[in-house]
Amino acid sequence: MDTTTNRINRRTLLKTSALTMLGLSIPTVTWAAGKTNDPNTVNVPKHFPNIPPEIIEEVVGKSHFDLEGVKSLVGKRPELSRSVWEWRFGDFESAIGAASHVGRRDIALYLMSKGARPTLFTFAMLGHLNVVKSAIGATPGIQETTGPHGISLLDHAYAGERMKDNMSQSEIESLEQTIDYLSGLGNASGTDYMDVSPEEQKKYLGDYKYGNGDNEGFTIGVNMRKLLSLGPIGGFGGALYKVGDNLFTYNGTPSVTISFNMKKGDITSLTLTEPDITLTAEKVS
C-alpha cells in the first residue's frame, strides 16, 4: 500500500472518529487517483452545527403576528418550535412565549403541535384554569413572576381575549374564569411601576451616544405599548419601567437600570448599569 495514501486515510479516520464521538460529522472526503474533494470547499454555514441565530430571531419575531411565516419555518424544522431568543440585556423570549403575550392562540397551538413547550403564561392565555390553579397551588407566589418583557401573568390572560371571535363558548367562559381567578389573587398583575405621562415621556426622547461609532448609542422612544423604550440607535427597543426619580429598569430585567441625568432642568445624558458594565451616553438629539 502506498505510504502516503495510508497516512492520509489514518488521519482522516482519526479526525472523523473524534468528531463522531462529539456527536458531529464532517462532509465526506473522497480520495481517488490523486484527486480530492476538499471539505473546505463545501458551503458550511458560519454557525454550523448550530442553527443560524438570524433564523431563531425570525421564528420568535414572526411568532408575535405571522402564522403562515411561522409555518414556513417550523414546518421545515419542527425543532424551531422551541426557539428562544435574547432580545438584549437578558430579556429572553421563546416563540410560544411571543405568541402567548400577544394573544395569538392560533400560533401558540400550532407551535405546541410541533413540539413547543408551553409555559404557565401560555396556559393563562389559553384559559386553562385548572392548569393555572394547580401550578399556583403547588408553588404559591409563582403568579407574581413575569414573562418576556416583564409582562404579567394576568396580562397574558387578558391577551387571550384577542381571538374571542375564533373561540367556542366554553373556551371563552374558561378564559373569563381564568381572568377572574388571577384578578382575585391581587398579585398576578406584576410589579406596580410608577406612571410616566405622555408629557413626561417627551423629556427623555432622543438619541444618546457613548462612542464615536455609528451604532455606539441608544435611542429612547415610545413602543407599541405606549411605554418609554430603549434600543440601539435608530432601532426598536424594550420597555423602560420607572422605579424612581429619573430611574428606570429595562423590560423587567432586575439587574439592569437606566438613570437619566439632568442639568438646569434638561436631560443631558443617561447612565446604564448592569452587572459587568456601567456606561454613560450623552444626549445628542
Radius of gyration: 25 Å
Strand order of the largest sheet: 5-6-7-8-9-10-11-12
Number of domains: 3
Structure class: alpha+beta
Based on DSSP secondary structure assignment, what is the total number of beta strands?
12
Count the helices. How many? 10
Strand content: 15-25%
- Separation, N- and C-terminal Cα atoms: 74 Å
Report the helical percentage. 25-40%
- N-to-C order of helices and strands: HEEHHEEHHHHHHHEEEEEEEE
Mean pLDDT: 88
Q: What is the makeup of the main sheet?
A: 8 strands, antiparallel, barrel
Question: What is the class of the largest domain in the CATH system?
Answer: Mainly Alpha
Map the helices and strands.
Blueprint: H1 3-21, E1 31-32, E2 35-36, H2 53-62, H3 67-74, E3 84-86, E4 92-94, H4 95-101, H5 105-113, H6 120-126, H7 129-138, H8 153-159, H9 169-185, H10 198-201, E5 206-209, E6 217-222, E7 228-232, E8 238-244, E9 247-250, E10 253-263, E11 266-274, E12 277-283
Antiparallel strand pairs: 1-2, 3-4, 5-6, 5-12, 6-7, 7-8, 8-9, 9-10, 10-11, 11-12
Describe the model.
It is a single chain. The protein has 285 residues and is of the alpha+beta class. It has three domains: 3-41, no CATH class; 53-185, Serine Threonine Protein Phosphatase 5, Tetratricopeptide repeat (Alpha Horseshoe), CATH 1.25.40; 198-283. Helix content is 34%, strand content 22%. The protein is built from ten helices and twelve strands. It has helices at 3-21, 53-62, 67-74, 95-101, 105-113, 120-126, 129-138, 153-159, 169-185, 198-201, and strands at residues 31-32, 35-36, 84-86, 92-94, 206-209, 217-222, 228-232, 238-244, 247-250, 253-263, 266-274, 277-283. Strands 5-6-7-8-9-10-11-12 form an eight-stranded antiparallel β-barrel. A two-stranded antiparallel sheet has the order 1-2. It starts with a helix and ends with a strand. Residues 1-36 have low confidence and may be disordered.
